[in-house]
Amino acid sequence: MPTSGRWWPVSSGPVLVTRGLTAGYGGPPIIQDISIEATPGRVTAIVGPNGAGKSTLLRTITGVIRPQQGQVLLDGEDVTGLAPEQLIRKGIAYVPQVQNVFPTLTVHENLEMGGYTRTSGLRERIDQLYAMFPDLQAARKRPARTLSGGQRNMLAMARGLMVDPSVLLLDEPSTGLSPRFIAAVWERIRLVCSTGVAVVVVEQNTRQTLAQAAWAYVMVLGKNRLDGPGPDLLRDEEVVNLYVGRLT
């Protein structure tokens, strides 16, 4: 599969939509009037500087934070304000930047924990994910704390996929990784997309992320500043001068 450029398949309409989301932590809103769409089989990127509200947006979508205004739609159903466990059952998986695996459990036990909502097919799903993430199969008996940063991020991604989500939200999956592991993480993200999952990636590694994204949103101070096809934004003079140079 190509590693850059317009590799994504033609997709149907959006599976995840937010309309005018405004949310915060009890004080002034951190995000204001945020509207995004994510479609099956494609990467949707959300980029921007620290403090832009990117992670707050993901927490609002996944029910960790209740929005002050706006809607979250999943396959056309209004799921605004549902609890995180309800959203998991409906098909939204969220992989936070930190504390995303159980360090004392083995790789295999982490995957079993990720499938706690499944009523059947647990072993088959784990086998599918071992095929998608062969490094995890080789390390299946190791405690998660002994894995490298890249391996832990892949384990976190695989745990999220245990529920067969239609949408996978990834918060800074390449942070702190070497270039080799960044490339490996993106290879797995592309593989996940090829199965029809809509992947939403929050990142500060702007060049890499925009190059991979079918569509991208640039957030600044809690608001959408720009959006468009990721590779096109990389060639946009305003984006390069104002954002890419200082975010990369």
From TrEMBL:
SUPFAM superfamilies per UniProt: P-loop containing nucleoside triphosphate hydrolases (SSF52540)
ABC transporter domain residues: 16-246
Gene Ontology biological process terms, A to Z: L-amino acid transport
GO molecular function (one): branched-chain amino acid transmembrane transporter activity
Superkingdom, natural source: Bacteria
InterPro entries assigned to the protein according to its UniProt record, in alphabetical order: AAA+_ATPase, ABC_transporter-like_ATP-bd, ABC_transporter-like_CS, BCAA_Transport_ATP-bd_LivF, P-loop_NTPase
Keywords tagged on the record: Amino-acid transport, ATP-binding, Nucleotide-binding, Transport
Coiled coil: none
Protein name: ABC transporter ATP-binding protein
Family as reported in the entry's similarity comment: Belongs to the ABC transporter superfamily.
